Amino acid sequence: MPTKKSSPSNPNPESSEERIEIIKEARCKSLEGSAHLTYQIGRDKAGEVCFRISKNTGGGFFSNEWVEYWAIERAIKEDWPQDKPITSIALRGLFRGKSVNTPSFLMAVLRDVGLLEPVPGRKRIHQPCDPKPFLNSLGKPPAPAKKKAPRKSPAKAKAKSAPRSKAPAKTSRKRSPASKKKA
Which distant-in-sequence residues (6+ apart) come within 8 Å of 25 by Cβ? Predict the structure, then answer.
């Protein structure tokens, strides 16, 4: 299924023609623990890490669009007030006009992969964890593919490599009687 890469104003990779390569699929419990979520982690062609919810055994609606990790990180570390505890409301801006379940489902995924951890004694409140172990577990992104120059056809290559002669071209004009006398 083709998906799209986002611009900074749209953190969802559904806005361009790039494919997301799925590098991991896993299951976790929802924050309430009443359902199991299947999620996918992938990389776009630029190597950006992306997340999406793909299934829910609980029957609640959700959005299955890809969300880039940088957008999640920005929502939690920059857009959300640092003096407020982190709840799924911090992720709502990533899914404007979408299901209200999706931010809490994504929060459960982020907890499952170790990017967030629950605050002890607080069921729905989380704190960020060091992202390095998670990012290192995904391995290095593939190097961007280099574009190869188009190959020239053998006939064109041969024609370009053949040396040009400087001799004037012969013409088959008839000489006028006056020019014959001079020659």
Answer: 38, 39, 40, 41, 54
Distance CA 133, CA 138 (A): 9
CA distance 78 to 76: 6
Query: What are 47-96's pLDDT values in tens digits?
Result: 999 999 999 998 888 988 999 999 999 999 889 888 888 999 999 999 87
| Ranges assigned E (strand) in 49-152 | 49-56, 67-68, 116-118, 126-128
Residue 50 and residue 65 in contact, taking contact as beta carbons nearer than 8 Å: no
Please report the beta strands in 6-138, taking only residues with DSSP state E, as ranges in sequence order: 21-29, 36-43, 49-56, 67-68, 116-118, 126-128
Residue ranges of the domains in the chain? 21-137
Report the chain's mean pLDDT, rounded to a whole number.
Answer: 77
Beta-carbon contacts of residue 104 (< 8 Å; ≥ 6 apart): 30, 31, 88
Residue type at 155 in one-letter notation: A
Amino acid identity for residue 46 in this structure: A
Q: What is the pTM of this model?
A: 0.67
Name the one residue in this structure whose structure tokens are 């199991």.
36
DSSP letter at 89 equals G
